[in-house]
Amino acid sequence: MIDGFGNLTELYNEVILDHAGSPRNFRENLEAGRKAEGYNPLCGDQITVYCLLEGEKLVDLSFTGKGCAICTASASIMTQTLKSKQIAKAQNMFERFHKMLLGEGGEDELGKLSVFAGVHKYPARVKCATLPWHTLQSSLKEGDRVSTE
Ligand code: ZN
Predict the structure, then answer these.
(1) 3-state per-residue secondary structure call for the chain
(2) pLDDT tens sequence across 97-131
(3) C-alpha of residue 45 to centroid of ligand 1, in Å
């Protein structure tokens, strides 16, 4: 691989492996008002994010699908981190998360999300880590309504 998987431990740390192996909030939510599907053709990651809003607050977040370890762990930690946060706060965290993935720092303020700091050395993996966030964003913007029928 051109993007150099020489030092795997740097990329796949313990927290990432834990979340990839047993992802949190990994479930459908047919009562969620919003959902969106995300696909990363570079890697084959394909996920669906479900989002239940109460006003501007993300009261419940969950996801399903098939992704690589980075994508699955990112979705898992994202749902944990953003649950019960305001949309504006979530957007702000995504901006900072994205900056960190571009190698621009800021991991000190990102709590658990900082486990992805090493991803910036693997450009092909950045899209895996951001896919859940982009998918969440598109659910908030376009708001594909979940059909309960
Ligand atoms: Zn991936």
Answers:
(1) CCCCCCCHHHHCCHHHHHHHHCCCCECCCCCCCEEEEEEECCCCEEEEEEEEEECCEEEEEEEEEECCHHHHHHHHHHHHHHCCCEHHHHHHHHHHHHHHHCCCCCHHHCHHHHHHHHHHHCHHHHHHHHHHHHHHHHHHHCCEECCCC
(2) 999 999 999 988 899 999 999 999 999 999 999 99
(3) 5
Please give the distance, rounded to the nearest whole angstrom, from the Cα atom of residue 75 to the centre of ligand 1.
11
To which residue do tokens 């700091």 refer?
A: 117
Q: If you measure from the C-alpha of residue 5 to the centroid of ligand 1, how many angstroms do you get, rounded to a whole number? A: 14
**Ligand 1 centroid – CA 92 distance (Å):** 23
